[in-house]
Fold this protein.
Amino acid sequence: MEWKPFEEKIWLSSPTMHGEELKYVTEAYETNWMSTVGANINEIERITCEKVGRKYAVALSSGTAALHLAVKLAGVKPGDKVFCSDMTFDATVNPVVYEGGVPVFIDTERDTWNMDPVALEKAFELYPDVKVVVLAHLYGTPGKVDELRAVCDKHGAVMVEDAAESLGAAYKGAQTGTFGKYSCISFNGNKIITGSSGGMLLTDDLHAANKARKWSTQARENAPWYQHEELGYNYRMSNVIAGVVRGQYPHLEEHIAQKKAIYMRYQEGLQDLPVTMNPYDAEHSEPNFWLSCLLINEEAMCRQVRSETEALYVSEPGKSCPTEILETLARYHAEGRPVWKPMHMQPMYHMNPFVGTQGYMRARTNACIAGGAEDVGADIFSRGLCLPSDNKMTPEQQDRIIEIIKGCFA
Ligand SMILES: Cc1ncc(COP(=O)(O)O)c(C=O)c1O
């Protein structure tokens, strides 16, 4: 069946506003708290602590800023190696480099597409002195937190948790954002709730929270003039942005329910195709289902080659590939995206160590280096894609997207 393109674009994940945002933004305007101080900031820090279950929250200009301060608090110094999630957005990793640290990438497990605890243990065999691990929960799906934490504890390492994509997701009854000594969330425009931008640092350590707050406001000392004893940053959240976040918070659960319904509808609608969805541990975790993703079975992949910036494929009956599906969706005015390209495959991180379950792996190949281990991240990148997951997409629109995807395998 031939479909017409969508009249209005179906987005991967766009902001969903409700009206209350304007009320709090207007309040900021009318009371003239148009700066990095004000009631909205105080209120969203309070709400975040309450919702996530942490003692202290520091509202910042972005999730990246939060990760930067978390990496500083964790004590990363120039030359220090830091174990990092590999299949994630580069904002998880870049803050390590801001501090002069050297990311060592840890391969991905197949059960949740997050950092593999077995590979993490292997990495400590190779680098026993490492003291910081930066762990992300990809696409709103909690990683294997208990196993990862056990490895960190065994080696005396601090866990920095990147929960930018996973606000509202839970693992064994506790929310993501509670597992790191320092944890971070993001209110970027594409996240489950948004401030248009913004982020937060979460911790149970009052001293650390105070440090972060001070660093984020240019590290001013308590003095009658601008007095500085250490390096500061302009990282504090604006009270206007905080107004948007404040208006969004009452809708967090509703957004999660919508995203979950989208995931379930894809799962059901695509069940006859040779594909699986991004997996999660249904017994122990409840993702926020931020993005729904697809992984094409190996035997159902048509030929696809990718350079650093381009992709080609050869269409084949009964088979498809991410490039074909994404290009087809784009023709119909729907936005998907390749699965985040793993950090070890990124040109800027090609020279950084990459560790899998059997030891060192080499970037850019899907072949094993040590003992027959495969590069799980590269494999998921080659066969996976993120589907349109916008919570304003109607069931009818989603059904059309499902039919369009089916058409790629015809
Ligand atoms: C996993 C992950 N970490 C960090 C960030 C950075 O957050 P922000 O865009 O708020 O700086 C993002 C998203 O943008 C992300 O997806």
User: Anything to note?
Assistant: The first strand starts at residue 56 and ends at 60. Residues 62-64, 88-89, 91-92, 136, 162, 164-165, 186, 188, 199 surround pyridoxal-5'-phosphate (CB under 6 Å). The chain has twelve helices and 18 strands.
